[in-house]
Amino acid sequence: MKRNISHGFLYAFSALATLSISVAVLMENYSQTIDSALGTHSTVIKAESGEGTESLYSAFKPSEDVLNKDGSGNSKALIQKAFDLDRKVAAEGCVLLKNENNSLPLAAGKKVTLFGIRSKYPLLGSNMGNPVYGGMLNLESALGTDNQTHWEKSSNRYSGGDKNWTNFTFDGGNLVINPTMSEAYELVKANRTGGVTPSYNENMSKPYNSTEATLLELEGAKSGFKSSFASYNDAAIVVVGRPGTEGMDYLPGSKGCASGSGATDPLGLTDTERDTIKLATDNFSNVVVLVNTTNQMEIDELKNNPKISSILYIGFPGAYGCLGVSDVITGKANPSGGANDIFVAANRSMPAAVNFGEYTFSNASSIARGKRSNHYVIESEGIYTGYRYYETRYEDCVLDRFEANSTKGAVASSGNWTYSQEVSYPFGYGLSYTTFERTLKGEPEIEYNVDTHVATMEFTVNIKNTGSVDGKATAEIYGQAPYEQYGIEKASVQLLGFEKSDVIKAGQEVDLKVKVDLQNLVSYDSNAVNPDGTKGTYVFESGDYYFTVANGSHDAINNILAKKGYTPALTSNRMDAEGNENACYKMNSSKAEALTNDFFSHSKTGQRISNQIPYADWNYYEDNAITHLSRSRWASTYPVEYTNLTAPNSMLDDLEGKYYTVKTDETPETVWDSEETNYKFYELFGASYDDPRLDQLASQMSLEEGMYFSLFGGPVFPSVESVGFQEAFLLENSGNGVVLKLKETKDTNAPWAIKDDDEYSLWSGQILPAAPLVASTFSHEVMEEVGEFMGIESLFTGISIIWGPGLNTHRTPYCGRNNEYYSEDPVLSGECALEASYGAQKYGCILAAKHFAFNDLETNRKGVAPFMTEQRAREIELRAYQIAVESSKYDKYDESGKIVEDTGLRGLMTSFSKIGGVECSCSRGMLTDILRNEWGFHGYAVTDIEDDMDLASQELYAGITGVDIRGAQSYYTTTTIDGKFANQVDGTTMNKDAYKGDATMQATIRESNKGLLWVFSQSNLVNRYNSTTRTVWNFTWWRGAYMGAIGATAGAAITFAVLYALKTVGKKGGSENE
Amino acid sequence: MNKIKLNKCSYLSLAALVFTIASLILILVSNGVAGHGFAKFGEVVALAIISPIAVLATGALSVKFGGHHFATVIAGGVAIILITATLGSIIFQRSAMIAAQFTYDKVNQIGWKALIPSLIAIGTSLIADVALITGAFLKD
d(Cα B74, Cα A1057) in Å, to the nearest integer? Predict the structure, then answer.
């Protein structure tokens, strides 16, 4: 072989060998991800069961309806269960906002035309965050007469199922759908080039323009399409909507709208959408509009359009939820949902919209932490977000006080601020195909426990079906606490609790019991002085309290006004409707003697409550710099936009992450490496957190193990040999189901694990409707079933902890991630999460609600500093988490009254954002003082992906139990503490010996370890453990492939190197001989 | 003054030099996108700096001793390995970025701003490799 040939091949194979080694390193680092993609299993937890060993898979099992008789998994039954659940959630969550002349429901057989690109491609999930997979069912299929899926047409298993799946049949709407328009929209999408593609998980664009088809496009796709209307003119169904995604927001007003769209707000209708609606109203007498969004759109023009007969809110229905939408449209289901958020005529009329977007500190360049601490947002609207603002200002308008009747903040009003012009549909509002009368019966039952500081009231709500159609009804209880001008800020109405009836037959009535926690009505006073000298606590003020049952927040305030003796006539029609005083109960605080002013000054754990996040408020750093909206003077204190603020010197240390300094000279007392006991973590299954064995178990760990266990929060957890915990992939996203295909299960040994050759092994569990639709059901039963299904999915996929649901509250409709979060209201949100968590726990699945807390906008979410009062923080955002963590609704007690099973939320994920100047992941006030000490939280508290890794010690000190690091595995060898946490903000490198001289950190790590050990010991992870459990490493085929590639290419390189050398030596020898 | 006579190998080394320098520039550009810097920037930039030096050495040695002299071959081999390692490091670190959070829709402008230069840098590194390999195959 000629020398140059050897030379060339030497180089070529050297390059290939180097590339093979690079690819090998990459593959090993992402082996878990590759396993998920290829269905291989690099490591498996193996255990034997049988005679002489403890049984496996006995602690938690999926429900019988998804198992075969032999206990193996039935994938088809699981998918059918998903169908049924999505259908139920959507049917009960759809909110009928308008229904003139009973235009809905539409009987089977009616001939209808669907309008709007979203009628063909409805938004079923978000783009990033909570997309839906698993094979979808669109609106057309659900409404039509075909009554089966068509997965054989799927080109992409992620978007439409798999062509090898047997189709599912169902009883759909049986409406006859105009095929011409259906084809037209399909062609419009096919013909489009550029821009955002209409799809089930459509992305947002910023600035926003809708993907709606223009009339020109329709004509180009199907010339003469209008001639088809006559044959399908029983009704027109128009679908409008807005997508949602992670990482992006809509911006308020015209700056959020694409030029030429014709919209004045990105959530307002564009010209193209108006054209589509007009096309329908010009040609049809019965026009139904479906609002397909999780960011409340501006629909006042739909409400006021006499040619639009009906408006139905459908949220994001999930993979199969269009069946539920179809059920409502065709009358198989009577709509019973209530609006999860208020619909306003102009979203920018919200005080919160004044400060929403990108705000950079004027001295950002001088902040060393750089882009992680450059941005802020001033949330000066205080507690007056969403319906709290509109209903409170309404009451003050009616009573003509406090500058409420002014033009300040009026956007849709002609003149002074007028509720009926600013608001389209209130929070909690929803119509039915029948009518209901709701009244309060008798006196509520008040219970209080002075030891646990718990006070509840149970109302008996009588609901009478006064119409002609059977249906379910909600009983929403709202409350009002007494307010005095310049006193503690209070909203006029707050949702306190709710229940939903079973189907009430026409003409019948039922009594529903609704129990409310009065904790949700008390106010937080940051300036209250406590006996121990601390400041801030909850205050139960004396005066008149009102409680009412209502169909929404506006009904509620009108009922309360009626109880106070007000009528429209008496208020010169400032009151816009008569209220129902029979639906309202008035209680003077003196009636409940035990409820003293400071009754709620201690939490249910007995912890005295005081200010724990004073840095949430800008005024903490710079006195009186920010004016917060006050009800006492609406106009004078209405928010202004705070731009270009300079971070004061007093804030800089917080922005730089200086929250804690590691000590090196202390003598810690925490015991490690104890040999007194030899428990294994799974032996604590069923034990309470107070079980003394938990402390003993944790003390068996070494400090190094403790640090690994508390720093690496998944998805792969490090092994802890001293307590029998094996390294394993244990966590996944997300709030709408587990992000794994059935064949990707991390627990292949489970009896119900779906095998690779199963027909539906590629089915993905991300199929549930988006959170807002779950919330708008107002049904604890539905919320619990959603959690149960996630729990069942967790068993099928071998996942013990799910990062979800989303539990932030909607500060505005603009946040791109609102689709993952339930509602603007903390009680509704908290109840949703509580029920979901309880449902999941039945199957040993731990839900880790996110993002704790204050993820109010996606813009600059990594490190943005939202500033607000601590009252606002506690009464709105944190209250949702508090309800889910603290609730004793499902707790179990022994005979002495001691808690033996705490069923509150056991997991959460922190927010990328700060709270005020302090990272949420590093806020000891939030994570330890409030979350643990006040609320009694025990469990898993992880950061968001690789968040604040330069603040590892600060995060641990605050109370984090781990950092979410995707791809981390093979701990102690490939993944080490100093490798992953090398660059700390203080210039140090983390290492396993970092806390040898820090007593506080060791104690904190111990608590973190205990929480994790307890949570895992109560989870379905224990299914896989007995004394024989060990991790087994598998030599996967892809490892063989890369090793073969390295061997072959390196071998070839060496071979050609030798050949080159021989040729070179030979050539030299020949020259010498000459 | 003696003229420097370039052979085929040295011409192709020159081409490889241009492309490795281009890779370096693109790595710097990609790293500069706010919020999307390389996690281990030092590692990738070190490789990207040493690569053109090795390529330059290869070219110089090929001019002095010829394109297939063992010194040239060793230098070129080292250059090939370094260029490929640079390429591998870019892939590895940008995979980390994609694995964390990335949306492929064109509206993710910042993400694409970081990713596209990296993808081009991978391409230029490949071209540099191909140039050196081609030069190795050619006779002087």
Answer: 10
